[in-house]
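Forwarding the complex inputs:
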Amino acid sequence: MKNSFNLINKLASFLIICLVFASVNALFEDQIGKFDWRQRYIGKIKFAQFDPVTADRAFVVTEENVLATLSSRNGDILWRRILETDESRGLVRFLYVNKDSKSVMRRTGEEADVFEYVANTGQQKTATSSKITAGWITKDKCLLTGNSFVCLVKDQLLVLDLLANQNNVRTKALDSPANDIKLILGQDGFIQVGRQVISLSDLRVVFENRKLVNVFMDNSLIQLVKENNEIKIKMDEQELTTLADLPETIDNNLNILCVKCKPKKDNIGQLACRFLLSTDDGAIVLVQQSKIKWIREEALTRIDSVELLDLTLSDAQGAIEEELNNQDADIWSSLYRRLHSQYGMVKNIVLHVLGLGPPPSFSERAGLVRDDFGLHKMMVIVTESGKMFGIDSVSGKQHWVRILPNFTRFPNDQSMKVLVQRTSKYYPLSAQCAVIARDKETGNGILYEFNPISGQPINGGIKKLGYKIQQVSLLHKSGENFLRAILFIDDKNGVHVQPETSLAMVDGFFFYVANKNTGDVTGYQIQFENNEATSLPIWSLNLGGTDNEQKITAIAAKNTIERVHSQGRVLADRSVLYKYINPNLIAITTEGPDAVHKNILNVYLVDVVSGSIVFSINHRRVKGPVKIVHSENWLVYTFYNEKIRRNEITSIELYEGKTQTNSTVWSSLNSTPLPLVERQTFIISSSVAALRETITEKGITNKHVLIGMHSGAVSEMSWALLDPRRHSMISPEKQREEGIIPYIPELPLQHESIINYNQTVSKISGIYTAPSGLESTCLVLVYGLDLFVTRVSPSKTFDLLKEDFDYFLISTVLIGLTSASYIVKHLAAKKAIKQAWK
Amino acid sequence: MSKLSSKKFKWNLEFNTKSNKNSDYASPPGYNLSAGQHHSEVARDTDQSQLIIKKSWDVALGPVKGIPMNLLIMYMAGNSISIFPIMMVGMSLIRPLKAIFTTSQTFKSFEINQNIALQKFIFFIGNLINIGLALYKCHSMGLLPTHASDWLAFVDPQQRIEFSDGGISLI
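Prediction (whole assembly, two chains):
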């Protein structure tokens, strides 16, 4: 009896799950690439080598541990192998291309594994690697060049021939002690030890006292020399190539990666060379005959922060906007303005038709004009190397690139900040953004204000601040010209505001600073008195535990542009469970070792205005990295359960209860009762690399959670599946009435819900979501080694006609029916007259 | 019967010739043929208006009399929302409403030198009760926005008073 009951239960839950998944919107085959795109990257190059036979391609190994082949013609990736980035084992230390260019070798790890790859396809030749193990092999003092494996042991150079039958070890004593051993690119059998260049074939010192040897070829050195504004590449004293005008978009600190030369046909004695260069900001440049053939922007593999912005209005739309803006004028002047603007429009149309119209503005020329649905946006991307990009969200084109010298990340693994001071909404005024970073040289704060659409600097661009930044924030109110000021807290808790005219607005603003290592969190309030703003500490918490062994690993606040449409949740008895939507709530996770439970993960929900801990939860024998999403009244985070060895995902929801304490205003300082907490943990079958919630303009659309997995897939998880009310405490009937799926521990990761279908995004490091002009649609950027941009519509596109909507059929039927009814009416009248005459 | 037979139609063939003969039989003892006729004639003579009032009361009490039947139908229809219960509820709402608006027309024929305000009032009350029943039915079917959840979509988000921000120290 019990068994059959169970069976029925399972069947019912299966049916509900089927219903849920029937609503999941998968992509149709003809929609592939319609509104998504992917760009593949390889990362900053460590080693490179041209194909010894043709030089049509270059084999490269990058800092992201990617082995790839680039086409010399256009820089396309011919093949790419993404290798694991395990410090102890997987890192590629050497790349060697065989003379016949049939195979590529790489060496990894400490004990010199040598792998061989097929040069054309990138497939590994043999399943196993050939391994060299010896006591004297150390991590940084060994090299593989050609067939020789060279190690620096104290003052001796040990050379091991890999292709020799027996381990033929040769040694050479060095004249002067040296610490580092370096490869010389371009020619096998030569290495640099200290300041000497040594030939391995006869262990002879070829050059003495060379500071830095770039590339060595045909027994001569190739060097890159900067002269005035020109960059010259010289072989010994012979000049090979001159680069006169380097584009502004690349750093002028170039390094030669590899060279391939052949004698010119017409001019004997001269060489025609092809150079692969890299810059400090990660760009790869191919130079041929004094010209840059192509540039690859590999800085985009390490994205630090992203912001998506609306484009500006077109001139015509702007004129309408301007007309509507002047509401305080009297009726006659507004009538005059209306007539005037319409006259202008007519004139523009006539001129446009005649081809005499005004030249299109910059944004119109570049196609950077807002579309009807706000789906076309500008992505402002700041990378770790301090290079900034403005990328089109529809085409993926880089509209502008800018190098921010000396901009670097903050300590404590904190990213540079991109703040939107003014959006594109205020028409005649352009949008304004600011990048805030740390100065590489002084460690002080550094600020760059710019127009995100054109990439042009505003107010002179880079501003060096005279203090270290402890905390930075965008003010909630906009000041002069709708510009939101930036608040800086310096290392002595001093308050600074940029621009300074908005200083008075900081009064009453709360902020908190968390110390990652000690677990201290301190809350401050800013007071503005006598034209001076000061910060006053008002609360402090220590989440470090005894001996400060708990370290803060993540802080998750809510998205500041988020709006919550529904204030509660309807229960089965048609009453309302009101959501606990505290805008000042943050989630803090701490991780640390424990004597009994090995690792402990704590999650605290803290109100940062009052400093009260609203809720805390403790997971034992659990390991990070914790990925966390905090939105509306819920929190979702993932971790690795060491006890059961699986990945788990926990969701927490907070409710005020069946009544709202204050339905009009929210104040954290009023003693609101503690919220009701619902929580549930699920098993997720894949390890999670990134988590993010979808966001829409008005918050009416359901929220889905985007899960970026280490496999490179991004799955869209419906909130109904993560719902913590999916537990056994509620009776099945009530659950069914509320639309809750009965609890099943495993979360299904359906193939239909993977938003990037087969467009794998390797090494996902983050997901960014932004609302579009359509309420149903949310724009998603997934970044990692690759970039992937798409749209998701969690509640389907309810505000949009389908793409295959048959306009033709509908209009034909409408027109046909209308005309038919007129004809019939006419005929009927005729007939009636005829009848009357009878 | 007597009236019908008295009329002479153009094409009237009487095949049942026996029926007429019935009257030829003598009446049973104690049966007075004229007794009933006499009585009715007396009543008609006493008051014509009495009948009108009675009739008007019949009409006035009609809605009230329909209540038990309505209740039974409503009970049988159940609370599920499907086409038949909806139609039924719709009808039971619309009918009394219509009746209320056409009260004066309904009672027009009885209004000849009579004061029938009370009847009208009772008719009105009866219809109101019917409307109430229909509304109760709507309520129990969940069609009326009587719960807090029905107004949830119109609840504005709370305005925040304090503004805050922060994060991990950038030093």
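The first strand of chain A starts at residue 37 and ends at 39.
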